Amino acid sequence: xxxxxxxxxxxxxxxxxxxxxxxxxxxxxxxxxxxxxxxxxxxxxxxxxxxxxxxxxxxxxxxxxxxxxxxxxxxxxxxxxxxxxxxxxxxxxxxxxxxxxxxxxxxxxxxxxxxxxxxxxxxxxxxxxxxxxxxxxxxxxxxxxxxxxxxxxxxxxxxxxxxxxxxxxxxxxxxxxxxxxxxxxxxxxxxxxxxxxxxx
Length: 200
Description:
There is one protein chain. With about 200 residues, the protein is α+β, with helices and mostly antiparallel strands. The protein has 2 domains: about 1-75, CATH 2.40.50.140; about 85-195. The protein contains 6 helices and 7 strands; from the N terminus they run E-E-E-E-E-H-H-E-E-H-H-H-H. Strands 3-2-1-4-5 form a 5-stranded antiparallel sheet. The chain has a two-stranded antiparallel sheet with strand order 6-7. Strand 6 and strand 7 form a beta hairpin. Helix 2 runs antiparallel to helix 6 (about 175-195) and helix 4 runs antiparallel to helix 6. It is rod-shaped, with a radius of gyration of 29 Å. The protein starts with a strand and ends in a 7-residue tail after the last helix.
């Protein structure tokens, strides 16, 4: 019969298995036939004698998948979750702010940071930085990309502003996108240059 170990006490040398038939069976360490020590949540194959589990073997077919899943969960990328939560959140917010209208020049039109191929490239780079903040790997690459993105956003702003200004006052042209993206960009570069990651 198959079942799952619910509990095993090393001190007492006894455990409990929840079997596929819906019943629970006690077992002693002397009935354990596998090289690995019994632990909770292991899938086992066993026989029943006098309402106790006997001849207990670890079911290797189901435990291989669990071991691989545990390896993935314990890998460097996922071990500690988001490595730098503030950097990750600021990166996502900055990527989203690129879609907001940044400059509105009335008759001459409006523009967002996402306009043109360079805007889309900035968006992709920011998402890449967000992943680096999530994973905590490649800190030097993260800092270099963050500097490139910051320079790119400011160049994009000044180029678009120069093209659309046509003699209007600066603050009359600015829209919500500018008031959101510029402060986020400043926070983005400050966090990148001071970024610290959790120890693995």
